[in-house]
Structures are given as structure tokens and as C-alpha cells.
Amino acid sequence: MRIPAHSVCTAIRDDIVAGVYERGGRLTEELLARRYGVSRVPVREALRTLEAEGFVVTRRHAGACVAEPTEQEAADLLEMRVLLEPLAAARAAQRRTEAHLKVLRGLVRLGQERARRGNSDDLRSLGGWFHETLAQASGSPALTSMLTQLRHKIAWMYAVEAPAGPVESWAEHGAIVDAVARGDSERARAVTALHTERATAAHRLRFGSAGERAERVRNSQHAVNTASLRH
């Protein structure tokens, strides 16, 4: 694999989220540089950025390793999203552009169509694009960046079950866009809060308690923290 140097951080982050690198596994500059077809300089810079974002930690005698979040840290992320998503919607009602509305309405039409047909294959990606666009419509780069990081980390830590009512979920998306289009920030905030709280119930941790993790390690034939790159 060969990618542009400026995209190394994104590539490593995506692979961490996808589970290519196990929690606690070492991330050596040499192997990462070889995998992505770059020098060690952009890899080193990427690891610093990922450490600041919480995906990577530096350990004495081991160097850079994939972080091992606790259950409390994971729960905190969902709570933060429940607080920030409604804020972004309220800001979007005040600051959105016609271009934002066009994209949001198009995504709602596609999502509602797929939901009615029972075609759930791309509903998750459509939902991700919807919330990303909604955050961008807030007109706040800092808020957009925080929500983007939250989505990456939540996707890493949680498996999301298919929603029991995708039609209802996309109806809520439509209600959010209607409020944003009318400039009704309080309505946008309230509908988004309800939608986000309902969506949170579908999240299930990808990792269990410390005791469960210890038990898996004891039963494993592989040494702890010796994850290697998958090819």
C-alpha cells in the first residue's frame, strides 16, 4: 500500500478503528512506514496526532501502542455526543447555508427510501454523512472537529446494532432538517437530543470488563501486546 504522506494519519486511524491493529498492540514506525509506503517522518507525526486524539499511547520500553480505553471512557464518549450533537443542530439552524440544506435533504430522501425498502446495507454510511453534514452546517470548525473525533472513537469502541425502526429513525432525521431549514434552533436541539439518545441504545461495547479481558488473555495462545500488522 502506498498513500500520500499527508494521509498517513487518516490511514492509521482508519485501520485502528477497523480493528487492523489490536488494542495494546505496538505500532512501530518502521513497520508502519513499510505498510503505507512512506518514510518514517510522516508516520512519526501521525502517531503524535493520534496520541493527542486518544487512539495511541506511548509506553516506556514499548513505544507507541494502540490505546486500551476503559468502559468508563467509552461511556463518556456517548454522553459527550448526546450533549454536542444537539448543540450542532441548534447552531446549524442559525448558520446553515442553502448548500448544506440541499445535501441534508438529499441524504434524508435517500435514507427514507432505503429504509422503506428494507435495504439497510448503506443506511449506516448515509447516517454518518448526515450527521457529518449537520455538524459542518453548525459553522463551527471546533465543534465539527470534536464531533468527527467522537464518531471515529465511538466507531472504534462500539458495535452498533441495526436500528429496530429505521423508518422512524429517518423520519427523525427529516424532522431535524425541517427545524434547521426553519431556523428553529430550539426545535432542532430537542429533536436531535431525542434522536441521539435513542440511537445510543443500539451501541454495544466491542470489549468487555477488565475481568473478561483478563480471562480472554489467559485463554489465548498469543502473547499479550504483540499484535503485528495484518497484510
With helices defined by DSSP (H or I, 4 residues minimum), what is the helix count? Answer: 10
Task: Return the CATH architecture of the largest domain.
Answer: Up-down Bundle
Give me the count of strands.
4
The assembly state of the depicted protein chains is single chain
Structural class: mainly alpha
CATH class of the largest domain: Mainly Alpha
Helix fraction, binned, reads: 55-70%
Unreliable sequence segments: 209-231
Radius of gyration over alpha carbons? 20 Å
Range of strand content:
5-15%
Question: What fold name stands as the CATH topology of the largest domain?
Answer: Four Helix Bundle (Hemerythrin (Met), subunit A)
Main sheet overview = 2 strands, antiparallel
Widest beta sheet: strand line-up? 1-2
Distance, first to last CA: 10 Å
Give a quick set of tags describing it.
Arc Repressor Mutant, subunit A; 2 domains; mainly alpha; about 5% strand; two-stranded antiparallel ribbon; about 230 residues; disordered C terminus; DNA-binding GntR family transcriptional regulator; Four Helix Bundle (Hemerythrin (Met), subunit A); GntR_C; two-stranded antiparallel sheet
